Amino acid sequence: MTTALVFGGSALAADPIKIGWISSLTGALSSAALAENQGVQLAVDEINKNGGILGRQIELLTRDTAGDPTKAVNFAQQLAFSDKVNVVIGPVNSGEGLAAIPILARAGVPNIVIGSIDELIDPQKYPRAFRVINTNRQWISTANDYALKNLKKSKIAIIADTSGYGTASAKTATELLEKAGIKPVYSVLVDPNKTDLTDEMNKARAAGADIVMPWSAATGLLGRLLNARGDMGWHVPVVGHPALMAAQIRKLLNKPEYWENTFAAGYHSTTYGSDGKLPERTQQLVDKVRPKLGGGEIDVLFWWVAMGYDTVKVIEHAIKTSGSTDPAGIQKVLESTKDFKGVFATYSWSPTEHNGFPDSNMTVNSANTFKDGSFKSAPK
User: Fold this and answer.
1) CA 72, CA 247: separation in Å to the nearest integer?
2) More exposed terminus of the chain, fewer Cβ within 10 Å: N or C?
């Protein structure tokens, strides 16, 4: 009997730690997911090479939603109830998160949230969901402050896409501007696959807009917006979502100069200092990732890589500290975590605050300063 228990315990200890990764590696909203996947995979490989977590290897179960919330729901159910994963990272996009996170919460599965809209985090409704990305409100507030205080613009056109994220963002952006005493002169929701935004940009100009603020993670849509602006000869500044700075945008532009006068909410962790250097932890990860990306210039937004890497390191921290994969133990550890140093940010959570990203890491970058996925600060 004793021998059987020992063997049973050994077998249990050797079971892999299953991490579900609900991503959107294909489709119109794939740019962030592809970069995040590089960081997730690197962290998993590193941890497994070093013996795993508590002597157990990580088994990564990746599921591609292609940006479809219905698929996100199905994968959440599959991972929680059939695959019986220990933790889930994602979904990547907020619209998918709105549909999938309640399912993971009902299953009691710890969930590392990487969608930005505010509704994804609620310690009462989703007690085991912890966010590592900034909130959407942090993005929008950072961009609004730059538009109003630095650029001194007040006639704002909001262009968002029709996804769950875009719809929620347009609403939040309008609310925050109105609190500042500003009513947008033009606002529209656009299908992320629309091939030409000339009509929307013409209407924004006719409304008297002196700045365009787009809220979409669809790089194709944002590239077409910048092309419409450039082809019109309209030099209005564009300030908004971080995807405005993605390398994919550069490839979509009709002319390189169409990227000028374009700014977006970004992060100090992936911003070059006045000495031309990145923060030390960021540079160390750049050096690790570069060979896996072919050894040349890194052509993805590096903060997504850093965030993907951090999600797995946060899971490692929670399991190691709790001493097991018990969901309640993981929740307890994360709710008592303060100043956990990642690459993307330094995170803190509490029983009443499951948003872990600090305001102090927010900044604004100039899109056309892209270099190895990082940027220079926008002019102050």
Assistant:
1) 26
2) N
